[in-house]
Amino acid sequence: MSDTRPRRSALYVPGSNSRAREKAKGLPVDAVIFDLEDSVADEVKRRARDEVVATIKGGGFGSREIVMRVNPARTEFFEDDMTAAVNAQPNAVLLSKVESTAEIFAAERHLRGRPETQGITLWAMVETARGLIDIAGIAASVRKPEGHRLRGLVLGTNDIIRETGVKAGGDRTPVLPWLSMAVLAARAEGLFVLDGVYNDFEDIKGFEAECIQGRALGMDGKTIIHPKQIEIANRTFAPSADEIAEAEEIIEAFARPENAERGVISINGRMVERMHERMARRTLALAEQIAVS
Ligand code: COA
Ligand code: MG
Predict the structure, then answer these.
(1) Closest by alpha carbon to 88, among 46, 61, 59?
(2) Does position 158 have pLDDT exceeding 80, yes or no?
(3) Ligand 1, atom 38: nearest CA belongs to which residue?
(4) In testing the pocket of ligand 1, which one of 23, 67, 125, 159 has its CB within 8 Å of the most ligand atoms?
(5) Residue list, ligand 1 pocket, CB within 6 Å
């Protein structure tokens, strides 16, 4: 399983938008993703890159996880974006439009052998047909020494919908198989997985429904685009009061002396196994982290 750091809400901030970069310091998100890719026009890429480096180095983001989204490895911007990441030292670099393990390894080449980059992790966006077809292979790159920094997968649903031509509609029916593949690929390798964005930020009800759906699919959190989406993402992807109470009950039950050597017990007429105890510990660890963040 991935770490228990909460990633309920991961807010994209266009790298070129100084007001939004500053605003992010006060927003209650788990992660801030400074974007150098699709939200930044080619003409201002260089300036946005420099400004994002300065913003990250300037600090002031508290316990928020700081992420830099770089342009795809096959673009002219990638090398300079990675050099900037080494300089800025975010918590993670989010690689965009990943289609192969080679791209994860290309990012690693920039980071390895430098003591100052030791703590930087890699997140991979999967948002193209090719990437989705090989998503298990991309996730499995974490088993290779050159892929060891990989921690999570991030869905790019806008790109997926655009490239494939599906009509996603309100309930995302056509993309659900791909979202589920992403969850499987992540879980097979112990990675976290974040759901794609909801564009209509004024439609709070629609956003909430999509968060609930994402959580049911197994997502760890939601990538978001606007401050109005923070509260619902944080609430939906946090363990609920009922889930916390149930987790406590399971741990207490297994802790009783008479259950010390039992692998399976019954609580209120339901079968509970040791795996549920492990899940319960994870739920409580996540809830604790959320409480202190
Ligand atoms: N991060 C930080 N602050 C943001 C923000 C974001 N992503 N989106 C909006 N805000 C701030 C605005 O700066 C504004 O702050 P202010 O009142 O202090 O001026 C406030 O929230 C309200 O914003 P609003 O006027 O409703 O929205 P907007 O018209 O300024 O921006 C978008 C709308 C969609 C352009 C903007 O939300 C955005 O750029 N989102 C991220 C897009 C992105 O990164 N896409 C790539 C990945 S999918
Ligand atoms: Mg994209």
Answers:
(1) 59
(2) yes
(3) 225
(4) 23
(5) 11-14, 19-20, 23-24, 35, 38-39, 197, 225-227
DSSP annotation string for 3-48: -----SEEEEEETT-HHHHHHGGGS--SEEEEESSTTS-GGGHHHH
Å from CA of 245 to ligand 1 middle:
37
Nearest CA residue ID for atom 37, ligand 1? 226
Place of tokens 């009800």: 205
4 has a pLDDT exceeding 90: no
Start-to-end CA distance of the chain, whole Å, equals 21
Separation of CA 153 and ligand 2 centre (Å): 13
Amino acid sitting at position 79? E
CA atoms within 13 A on the CB side of 278: 6
Q: What is the CATH number of domain 9-236?
A: 3.20.20.60
Closest ligand relative to 202 C-alpha: 1
Q: What is the pTM of this model?
A: 0.97
186/173 Cα distance (integer angstroms):
21
Which tens digit of pLDDT belongs to each residue from 248-288? 999 999 999 999 999 999 999 999 999 999 999 999 999 99
Residue nearest to atom 33 of ligand 1 (CA): 226
Q: In the chain, what are the domain boundaries?
A: 9-236, 241-292
